[in-house]
Structure formats: C-alpha cells, structure tokens
Design goal:
heterodimer; A: 499 residues; alpha/beta; 35 strands; B: 208 residues; alpha+beta; five-stranded antiparallel β-sheet; 31% helix
C-alpha cells in the first residue's frame, strides 16, 4: 500500500473555504433580504394600512352623515339601530372590505341654530390591520430627534396607544390598556353636519334652466344691512358691494340657457353656460352637482292647530288667536283654495299692540290657477307666513302682497307629489304695471316653475325646471341664507385627530 | 511489504509560484472589484428605496394636512407650502387651557359664526399654521413653530406643490423628485424618473 502525503488536511481547507464563502454570501443575502422585507413592510403593509384606515374612518363618517340626513328626509328611520345615551348616538363597529377594515362612529347635537335647526358633530374612527412583520420601518433612523414614519403612521402593535394615552373619547379620561389582536392602525376624523337652509341662492333649479329675458338681471342685497339699492352692485367702494353681487344661480343639469345679467355666480352640473356669459360677474363653474330631495310636510305635532278656516274662498281673512312662535306657529289645514281665492292674514294684536305673528297653512290641493285672476294672498306687516301646498300654484305677481317687504316673511313650500307621474307646477304671471312684483320665497323642488312677463321679484326660488321669458328684475336677499327649516344637511367641517 | 523510505519531497518552481500568484491576484482583484461594485449597487438601490419611502412620507404628511386644511398657499418657487388647519386640540396657553388646565390636549367643541359668506365652523379664534419647506438636505414640517424633520436625504429631494383654488373647492397637486446617487441617463432624466405625484382636496372646501 502506498501512502500519499496528508490528503485529509487539504480537503479540510477546501471545506473551510466553501463554508466561509457560503457564510459571507448568506450574510450578504440576509442583509439584502432584511432590507427588502423592511421596505416591503413599510411600502406595502404600513402605507396601505395608513391609507385604508382613513378610508374606513371616512366610511364611518358617511354612515353617520346618512343618518343625520334621515332626520329630515326619512325621519322615522333616522338612527335606527343606533344606541342613544347621554345625547350621543353610537353605532356598533362595522367590519367591511376584503382587508377587514373596521369603523365605528358617533353623532351628537352640539348646537341648535336660531332657526331651531340642530348641528351635528360626527366622530368616526377607522381601523385597518397591518400585515407583515411587527416592525417599525428603517427610516426611524434619520436622526436623534427624528422618528420618521412612526411619527406619522402610528402602529398599535400590542396595545391601542390612543385609548391608553388619551382615553376612548380622546378627552384625557378613562385611559385604559386595550390589547389588540393583530398590529393595526387607527385614524380618527370629526365632521360637522350643518343644516342646509332652503334659500341659499337666488335661483336653484334641480333640472333645466332657461332665462331670464335679455334685459333681465339677478342681483342681491342683505336686508339686515339696509334696503335694496340698485346702485350698490356697481359701486365697489360701497361696503354692501359684496352683498350686492351674490345673486347666484345654481342648476343641477347641463341644460342651462342663461340670459340677462347675473350679479353673482353660475353653477351647472356638466353644462356649458351659453348666451351672454360675459354678463355674469361671478364665477362660472360647470362642475357643481347637487341634489334636491323631495319635500315632505314637516312634523306638525307641536304646532298650534286652529280649525277655522278650513277653506279659502272669494275673500277669506285669517286673524290668529295667538302670536305663536317660529317653532310653534298657528297652524291651519285648508282643504280647498278656490281658483280666484283671496286670502288675507293679519297679525295678532294685544291691547292695540301688534305682535310678531307666526302662521302656517297647509293647503291640501291647488292654490289659484295659471290662468285668469289666480290666487290673491296678502300678508300684513309683522306676519311670518308659511304656506304649504300639495297641488299646483298659480297667481299673478301683483297679487302676492307681502306688506313687510321682507321675502322671508312669506314662504311658499310645494310638497312633492308622491305619484311620480304627477308634475307639480308653479306659475307666476305678469299683471299690473311692468314693475309689479312681490317679496316672497318658493321652495318647490319637484315643481316646474314658470314666470311670464317681467315682474320685480325680491326673494328666492328652488324648483325643478325653471323657465322665464321676461325681463325680470330679481333681487336675492342674502339674509335668506340663514332662514327657514333645514331641508338637508351638508358636511361643513372636517378635521382629523392626528394624535 | 516494503515501505517507501520517505514521503516524496516535491515543490513548485519560482515560475510556477509567480504564475499561481498572478492568477490568484487577478481572481482576487476581480472578486474585490465585483464585491465593491455589488456593494455600491446595493447601497444605491437601498438608498433609492429609502428615498422613495421618504417621498411617500412627505406625500402622506402633506395629504393629511391638506385634507383637513382650511386654506393652502404656496411660495413662488412652489417649494414651500403653508397650510392653515383647524386648531382642534386645546394647547397650553390657550384661553381654555388657562381657564381649565386639565383641558389641555382635549378636543374643542366647535362654534358657529355667521360671515358674509355664510355660516362658518370654528375650532378656535385662529387656526394653526403648518409649513413645509426645504432646509438643507432635509424637508421640515413646522407646526406652530415646532420643527419636525420629516425627510432627510442626500438624494436632493425636491417637493413642489401647486395650489388650485376654484370658486367653491380647492386642491393641491404635489410632486416629489429626487436625484439618485447612481445616474445613467443624465441627471435630468434620472430625476424625472423618480417623480411621485399626488392630488389632495381640502375637505373643508366642497362644491355644492
């Protein structure tokens, strides 16, 4: 047998070299993998969870906002299924989406405005699970006083940091340690749902718009700062100038033919405003959709019912037995208003002193007619009259007599037909002198409104389709934008609790 | 059996050693060069992704503040953004805090005021101010005077924000670019290739 020199030792050297090489390569590979996984963790899981938790929070806000809207549009079902305690409505947590997002929300009335309309505060939180490794990102290494991502995207790895630090309501009370099953991120938003009053614009049409005449104009003023003055709208130095150019026209369709001069803004929904657009002093925005929900009769439970009269004939006078209030007016239920009916509403008087008097009339049929004389309605000074009608309305402009001159003191509300095949109409015809007109407001979101001739109108209208072929002089009173019962809600404020 | 007298003595000649050393040197040089290149490349890629994360962070910060903002203004060079945000939490020194020190850090109940443009929701007499700006190689966020570095990179991060204000809405378009350490197609091209875009609407300014 021939023994060669030290073959085992040479093989061991090779093995050591191979092991070292593998070790070095493995360390490099592990380093690369570690970095890649950390980046992936941050980019894919944490950033995604951060965004999704906001989506969840906003979804919770939308859920609560929908319930707030129901307090007007669907009263019997508002906050159905919610818990009510201590003035706060609370919604049980809802889990949704493929990533098991979770949201819960609460709503409370934090203020009631002078019109008696409640303002709601909505607090909502959204939670999204953070997939992947339980790690903060590498970018927390930026500097001694810089924590990078974790300062922005706060991850609850084991405990809900918000509840532990600030309490469940964020008011520094009842701080408790609440463990979380999986890492998660939670974001919190607070919305304010503000009541939308009926008359926020001079003319608001949910459908098409045609008008006004070529020599017509729409301007504005604010009755609380002085009477209407036609010179203000062309006097920039006048402090009332800003209020004189707020005759805004809002149209929720693309079919909008604008004529005359608009001293205010014009909004359409996908339209291209045509004709004389150079006569629009404000902004033209063709991307402003809005909705006009059907109008229903308000809850009259707390109103002060007066049984007589129950019909308006040739000459009917209402003298209320009490002054009433805005939230509890004298309420009359009128089953018929003859074609040429004449209605006069007087104020309540105590010992010779005229009282501010609040009257509401519900006419369950038509008022007047679009031909002939039509209805005549006179409301005396100090009377605040609201007329609700189920059918159509027809009157000459000169026969709508509001002796106070304030449009807000004579309000007409067209109750939307429940039968979709029925088209409600409001016809305002010319009559008398060229400048004959009225001070009143119409809220009839389901009615087609037609104005013939060129009356002088102080007030506002909300309707479905708007048509006017005359040289109307239209003065919108900006004091109207804070008047009337809420007809819907809008989100007026948005803040995020970034703690 | 006959054993050999001794293990055979053998060796390399100087020439063989020189050849072997040369080959080893070449292999070692190649390995070192490749390793250094690999390390540089890895560093560049790592730096690239790290800066991308910083891009995302800047965008997320901006979007959060713009979403809850009341107004946004940008500087002429578009590299400084000022966002006015509701003063949601009671801070030390605020009137509420002076009246009730335990209220510090708690949310405010909003109040309503009527202005010439309609009702307005207020969380305090004056809103907070949040400023984003470049400070050397860093992007800083300053809220009520408190400076926070939200991104710091040698890759020359450049944020640009354009504020678009319409009649009844407002939004911002932001782009963040950086200059990668490794450039191959020229600096302009390499910077353009890193652009990250974002649009954020001010939730407090809605249409309709």
């Amino acid at each position: 047998m021939k023994i060669t020199g030290r073959p085992d030792a040479e093989q061991a050297n090779v093995l050591i070299c191979v092991v070292c090489t593998i070790a070095i390569v493995s360390v490099i590979g592990a380093n690369v993998l570690l970095n890649c996984v950390t980046r992936f963790n941050a980019a894919s899981s944490q950033v995604r969870a951060w965004k999704e938790s906001l989506y969840a929070a906003e979804a919770g806000g939308d859920i609560a906002y929908a319930e707030v809207r129901k307090t007007i549009l669907d009263r019997t079902n508002a906050f159905s299924g919610w818990t009510y305690s201590g003035g706060v409505y609370t919604k049980a947590p809802v889990t949704f989406g493929g990533n098991n997002l979770k949201t819960n929300s609460r709503a409370d009335t934090f203020w009631v405005d002078p019109n008696g309309n409640p303002w709601y505060r909505i607090r909502s939180q959204g939670t999204a699970p953070v997939m992947g490794l339980k790690r903060v990102t590498m970018d927390d290494r930026m500097g001694p006083n810089t924590r990078g991502d974790s300062l922005l995207r706060k991850i609850d790895f084991n405990y809900d940091h918000f509840t532990a630090t600030y309490g469940a309501n964020g008011d520094n009370t009842n701080q408790t340690l609440v463990s979380v099953n999986t890492p998660q991120m939670t974001r919190r938003v607070e919305l304010v749902a503000a009541p939308m009053t009926p008359f926020e614009a001079a003319i608001k049409a949910g459908g098409t718009f045609y008008g006004l005449g070529s020599a017509a104009y729409v301007d504005s003023f604010r009755s609380t700062t002085g009477a209407y003055d036609p010179n203000v709208r062309n006097t920039p130095t006048d402090p009332r100038f800003v209020d004189a150019r707020a005759g805004t026209v809002e149209i929720n369709s693309a079919i909008a033919t604008i004529m005359g001069s608009i001293f205010g803004n014009v909004y359409t929904n996908g339209g291209s405003v045509t004709k004389n657009t150079t006569s629009i002093t404000g902004v033209i925005d063709n991307n402003v959709p809005f909705s006009l929900p059907p109008f229903t009769m308000p809850d009259v439970t707390n109103w002060s019912f007066v049984s007589n009269p129950s019909a308006v004939g040739g000459n009917t006078t209402i003298s209320p037995p009490a002054a009433g209030t805005a939230s509890r007016p004298n309420y009359y239920l009128v089953s018929s208003f003859s074609t040429n009916g004449v209605l006069t509403v007087n104020p309540y008087v105590v010992n010779g002193t005229v009282q501010e008097t609040y009257v509401a009339i519900h006419v369950t049929g038509d008022i007047g007619s679009n031909s002939g004389q039509g209805a005549t309605i006179t409301t005396a000074n100090h009377v605040h009259l609201q007329i609700y009608f189920d059918g159509n309305f027809g009157a000459k402009a000169q026969n709508i007599i509001n002796q106070s001159g304030y449009a807000g003191n004579l309000q007409f509300y067209g109750i939307s037909p429940t039968d979709p095949s029925v088209q409600q109409t409001v016809d305002l015809n010319s009559g008398g002198s060229a400048s004959a007109g009225f001070a009143a407001v119409f809220y009839a979101p389901s009615a087609n409104l037609t104005i013939n001739g060129g009356p002088d109108i102080t007030g506002a209208v909300v309707c479905k389709n708007f048509y006017s072929n005359g040289n109307v002089h239209w003065h919108y009173d900006r004091a109207l934008d804070a008047m009337g019962d809420a007809v819907d809600y809008r989100v007026a404020s948005y803040v995020e609790d970034t703690r | 059996m006959k054993l050999s007298a001794s293990i055979k003595q053998s060796g390399s000649t100087l020439a063989e050693l020189m050849v072997g050393l040369s080959i080893s040197s070449v292999i070692a040089a190649a390995a070192i060069t490749a390793s250094v290149g690999l390390q540089k490349s890895f560093n560049a890629v790592d730096q690239f992704f790290a800066t991308q994360m910083q891009q995302i962070r800047i965008i997320d910060y901006l979007a959060r503040d713009v979403n809850r903002g009341l107004a946004v203004t940008t500087s002429v060079d578009l590299q400084s953004v000022t966002v006015s945000v509701p003063n949601y939490l009671i801070q030390a020194g605020d009137a509420e805090a002076i009246a009730n020190p335990s209220s510090i850090g708690t949310p405010r109940t909003p109040t309503i005021s009527y202005t010439t443009t309609g009702p307005q929701v207020n969380y305090s007499a004056s809103p907070s101010s949040v400023v984003y700006q470049i400070n050397g190689m860093s992007i800083v966020r300053i809220e009520n005077g408190v400076v926070t570095t939200i991104a710091s990179s040698t890759d020359q991060l450049v944020p640009q924000t354009t504020d678009v204000e319409l009649a009844n809405t407002e939004y911002t378009n932001s782009t963040i670019t950086f200059q990668p350490v490794f450039t191959s197609g020229g600096q302009t091209a390499s910077r353009t290739g890193t652009t990250l875009c974002s649009t954020a609407y001010l939730r407090n300014k809605r249409r309709g």
